Amino acid sequence: MPVNLWRHLTWPTWRDQPGRVVLAIVAVMLGVALAFGVQLLNGAALTEFARAARGINGQPDLIVRAQSGPLTDADLPELLNRPEVAAANPVIEGRALWPGQKTPHGMALSLELIAVDPLALLASAAGARPLAPELVPQLDGPQGPGVLLTPQTLHLNAAAQRLLAPGQTRLTLRLPQRDGSAPRDVTFAIGGRIVAGNAPLAVMDIADAQALLGRLGTLDRIDVQLGAGTDAATWQRSLPARWRATPPGDEGARLADMTRAYRVNLGLLALMALFTGSFLVYAVLSLATAQRLPQWALVGVLGVSARMRWRLILLEGAAIGAIGSALGLALGLGLAAGALKLMGSDLGLHGASGEATALLFNQPLLLPALTCAALGLAATLLAALAPALTVRRIAPAQVLKGLGLPAGRAVPAWAGLALLALGTALAWLPPVAADLPLGAYVSMLCLLLCGLALVPALVRGLAALLGKLPAGALLLLARERSRDQASEARRSLAGVLVALALAVAMTVMIGSFRESLQQWLDDALPADLYVRSALQAPLPQPLIAAVQREPGFARVSLQRSSRLRLAPGREAVALTARELDSGRLPLVERWRGATTPAALPVWVNEAARDRDGLRPGRVFRAQFPDSGRLVDLQVMGVWRDYSRMTTAIWMNLPDYRRASDDVTTTELALQLAPGQSLDAARATLRRLGGDDIELAAAGELRALSLQIFDRSFAITVWLQAVALAVGLFGVIASQSAQALARKREFGLLRHLGLSKPALTKLLLLEASLTGGAGALAGLGLGLALSAVLVFVVNPQSFHWSMDMHLPAARLAVLVGLAFAAAVGASLLAGRRALGADAVRAVREDA
Fold first, then answer.
1. Domain assignments of the chain as residue spans, ordered by start
2. What does the longest C-alpha to C-alpha distance in the chain come to?
3. Cβ distance 293 to 739 under 8 Å?
4. Which one, out of 299, 348, 625, 728, has a CA that is 20 to 30 A from the CA of 220?
5. pTM
């Protein structure tokens, strides 16, 4: 590519109009920065979560648990006597309440307790493969190793130590009791430091924990390290049936699986900025191309080939993309580091920028950076392709005579209809692994391309309708011009059409989700006030009896949150046993066939139906993990569950108690008596339960849920505004390009007697035709996209179905604003051409 062409054709435009070039670069930069920043934040969160989980759980070869119920002390020596076992560490897990400490939400702070055998950990730490090095206490000052075995001594991590008062050496905690009796306060001495965990965590001796927690003789798990050369799978098969050995769960991989759909959707949302930014690049290059059209024609006559001309335009796009992508990568890294520093408490960083930087650079950066940069460069090259093709196919002699741009190639209507059929078919495809609706995403892309392809046909249809109006010169000119330039309308309206379609789709989806969430909250929270233990343990029976005797409560409904294995040996899922006749069930499917007398009825959420095949009517055998009892269950219905994306089951409380022999209660749902105030009910419960219980009113839970929902989707409002602004700028730039190309046409019409107001009216008619087509196409396309989002993407990604609600008023405002802005942009773009002197324009044409 000759350097002289760049210096004489491209550089003067960049030098004289730097603002437009800077806007295009900024658009690419923001898109790449958002995509790269989201990727870095996701990677940092997963890395830190996995690191924290490895610190708490250690890195054993296998974790041994009982097939049902807890392990016993006798299991530990039996394991250690097996010749393949090199080391073993017994573990008890629990929680304790820290009186006087509150969470940011005003709840009582609970402290995680890990009870281990410190001698076993010290012995393994001396070897090449320590079991859990981050749980080994680090002792300061004169403290010796004996403090590890001192009764009632806690070793705290950094998050817990920050909550201590200066010089504090003792700590009082409230411990739950396994037998359901009231919690007891125990004062501990503060020992050494541990490095595991992000949330407040304490390590204690396991014998001490068994006595204080009422767990004498029982263990939760035993972490096992096998000798060199021992095959873990073979050793697992040699274990007695009462034991269950599994590899340590890779918590980072598990979190990645659970959040993959959310992260993919968030990444696609970030890429929307890059997608809309590409239209800004297209608008800038199209306007620059139209302004330099005589120069392109002249160099074409002088011997510059069409291929060389189009390569120069692509080089401009590549330069914009390369600069924007490089700046975007730097900005994305800065945004990710800043976000990690601000939300350090969530990731265990506590505002330490050095640790934030370490988290960012402790993950693979090259591949995400190259991917985001390639996306930015590809977007700008695609945006530059249409102007490059325009320059390549110009007829130099025709342009030099002032006849403007050649007519664009028409896309046949059947191509748009084919894309519509393909998009509809793809929307019915099931999700691929990890609940990713790839078919739905490709379907939405096909629908967008379909809308763009059908714009010319829509413009011609609207022009044909104008033919039924009383004939007039201006109407005839506007109709014929719109019909002949229908293909150009697709280019000028591409940005605003896509932006409006995405805005409509997101508006309908968010409105539908919010309305469905409100209805679900009304069904799922039928009581006035909810009570649970701050220790995440069963509520004491004396407290329940005292609440039931209070006259201020018209109804006290009991609830038990537990776990259930869908089959023996499988991971347990959430089980809620409640009095199901106390409130409506938010069911989406019901079983109306025959029931199995020997099976207990249960209701499952949509994730259980989709992931585990628990469809209405199915009978399956499940197991209670604590007791090991087996029970036959029949699915009687499927309910909406906006609180989780994993499997959950509801069971009637009397059925649960008969099947499990578990009579404990973990939550209370209270309906107030007539005339009883919420504040008086709270005071009564505080008098009965103190700080050991957590209270939440149904109205507060609804308001908090909706507040979280609105905050989660607030970014989409800004993205919609950015997308519409970019689309409208694209209309201005495209119409400016067409107006510059039509300058001699307007001059000739002025010379033939049309006044400037008449030409303005002509532009208004043309703009109304194209703007109306864009608004109608954007509305229809947005409704189609919203149907895919509501009925395909959300159910496949999150297992959340919803009812579609059309916010008519907001949609009317969106479409009206887009139409008015498109018409205004077209009129604004034509001002310069209409201001040209008619006689001079005709003289130039001569």
1. 1-40+259-348+368-406, 59-247, 413-526+710-846, 527-708
2. 107
3. no
4. 348
5. 0.75
